[in-house]
Amino acid sequence: MTESESPRNPDRQYRIDRYSDEKNAEVLEDLRLGDHGYKFRMLEGLVMPPYITPDRYALSRAIETRTGDICFTSYPKSGSTWLSYVLLLITRNGEAPPEDTLRNCLQWVASSWPYPRSKEYLDRLESLRIFKSHMPYQMALGGVPAESSCRHIYIARNPKDVVVSYYHFESEKAWAGDFSGPWEHWFDMFLTGQVQRGDWFDHVLSWWEQRDAPNILFMKYEDLRKDFRGQLENLSTYLGYELSPAVMDLIEEKTSFRNMKSSDFSNLHEIEQLGEFFRKGKVGSWGDLFTTEQSNRFDRVCRERLAGTGLDFSFE
Ligand code: A3P
User: Fold this and answer.
1) Which atom of ligand 1 is nearest to the CA of 76?
2) What is the 3-state secondary structure (H, E, C) of 91-145?
3) Which residue is catalytic, options 36, 134, 203, 269?
4) Measured from the CB, is residue 222 less than 6 Å from ligand 1?
5) Which residues contact 73 (CB under 8 A, 6 or more apart)?
6) Are 289 and 171 in contact (CB under 8 A)?
7) How many CB atoms are located within 10 Å of the residue 1 CB?
8) What stretches of the chain adopt beta strand conformation (E)?
9) How far is ligand 1, taken at its centre, from the CA of residue 154, in Å?
């Protein structure tokens, strides 16, 4: 067992080293360079981060989920870390877990960094396991989601806020080749599916189309912001928990942006180079970077790509 796989070992190293190709990419030969040094690898025809390695991806596809397991999935920068803490607290009736970080409570199987987990470790974990994933439906954890025993939750966020949040997250980071492109360039890369995890529309729609399966819950970041309590009730009902009003208050308080940002349990400060992960936590911060022309162009693409799907988003 490696140190990072030993959540209850008080002696283990707390700090997670900065991502490095040599230590974490596992297969160096298939790494590619895009514009402005943007680094990635291709898996199943999609742009993926270098730390999503072929072997770990294969393990994530083959993992046998158990009844009771939970898997939350999103396109990056859609509020998945927030959702993960909410889920954890629902399953613990609001109680803090024994682990010292949120990261150590979650299993991100396809990733070699910063959450490396072996099959043996995952097999040894007692039920219930909470899995994290950023895969589109056809690449999901544990095979075909609608046919698995796992409860899946997908969270989507309006793509204007996603593209801005993602730009800050990927700029000058080792896992993205220290990408140094300007905002305008990132904007184009995003709209043409050249960023890690590929085309946002394909990703979100792949799960949206499956939203009626009984073990898939599709939710939106904006709804969590606007009506946290209602969303918490939906989530807990879906997962089979009945929470008292006091526990719901506690979960709302613990998972607020302010508290997650300041708590060493959830702020992810142990991960080198993550930067300001808890950046704005708002709906509409896209307005800080978008020009009017970019906003109009983005709106046009959204209208075209989402037409007839029934999926829409609040942007303010
Ligand atoms: P911003 O960069 O717009 O601030 P993910 O966890 O999927 O990577 O998503 C990260 C985004 O969710 C960031 O958005 C982050 O600030 C926001 N976020 C994280 N925790 C939050 C919380 N408790 N409340 C609201 N937003 C949160």
Assistant:
1) 7
2) HCCCCCCCCCCCHHHCECCCECCCCCCCHHHHHHCCCCCEEEECCCHHHCCCCCH
3) 134
4) no
5) 80, 132, 133, 134, 135, 140, 141, 152, 153, 154, 155, 207
6) no
7) 11
8) 32-33, 39-43, 46-48, 70-74, 130-133, 151-156, 216-220
9) 15
Is the separation of the CB atoms in 210 and 145 below 8 Å? yes
CA angle 102, 59, 124 (to 5 degrees): 55
From 173, 254, 277, the mutation candidate for ligand 1 (largest count of ligand atoms within 8 A of CB) is 277
Chain segment 166-222, per-residue pLDDT in tens: 999 999 999 999 999 999 999 999 999 999 999 999 999 999 999 999 999 999 999
Nearest residue (by CA) to ligand 1, atom 10, is 77
Residue 285 Cβ < 6 Å to ligand 1: yes
pTM of the predicted protein model: 0.96
- Nearest atom, ligand 1, residue 85 CA: 23
Catalytic-residue membership of 203: no
Atom of ligand 1 lying closest to residue 225 CA = 25
The hierarchical CATH code for the domain 3-306 is: 3.40.50.300
Minimum CA distance residue for ligand 1 atom 20: 82
Encoded amino acid at 97, one letter:
P
Between CA 42 and CA 30 the distance in angstroms is 8
Q: What is the mean predicted confidence (pLDDT) over 135-161?
A: 97
Mapped onto helix, strand or coil, the DSSP state of residue 48 is strand
